[in-house]
Model the fold of this input.
Amino acid sequence: MTLNQIQNAPTMPPAGELKSLSLIVLTNFFPAAHRAVRYAAELAAPLGAQLVLLHVREVSVLDGELLDQPSQERDGELLMAVQALADEVYVPTSIELVPDLQLSTAAALLHRYTPAVFVLGQAAEVEQDAPVSQAVLDVLRSGEFPLLIVPEAYRGPAVPTHALVAADGDPFRLEHPGPALQLLKQLEPRLTVATVSAAAEDAVCATALRQVHSAGLAATACHTDVEAIRHQSPVGGLLQAVAQTPADLLVLIARRHSFLSALFHRSVTSRLLRTCPVPMLLLPAAD
Done:
């Protein structure tokens, strides 16, 4: 186990060096974060991936108890608490303690580890949400970082076998897709491309399937098909698609200029996060 505290921007690995997969898990001491750690460990084990447990110091539930202690002693107590989480998993694990969660912090971690995803637990109850959750959603809306959101109540397999990809037929190109596509390729799930519109059209389905192929997502699957969902709401349509397929992973393309762009408004995103019964993989697109 290693501990890294971000001070300056980390150096990049040597050119041409192939890094193993890594998953950065945002941790705190709430049940949703514990669920995310367990899910990420179960996902990482068969892939030979490493975990990075990321703890944001300023939002720790231990802060009230440790506030009067010197900073070095407080960090030591936090490290021990996060290490206790790491001791529960049986995959290679590192720990990162950061003072706050900003875009620059996430970018530094992205360069240091080249993670396939950032993993976040979604609390089952609104009042159980930790403050870090909103900070992570702000990072998500930047459209720069891949994010895997795990519902606290999810009890399905950690290694997905059927992924549902939301698409609307508009062209897209994934932003720095390498590690995320490598993750999906190693999982090799069945892929269903779902289109959501008020009037389902064959042409939209065909175009959406073609765009998913062009982006490289279809190449990660053992089989690909398409399904049209007739619904006025993108959120309602996606929830309907999840309900009528055996999907155990919902894949969203994080674009701000599309039919699905409504998903990334604060209130609508919150609704989807709180109601989707399966983990969601959000992949940033280059608009």
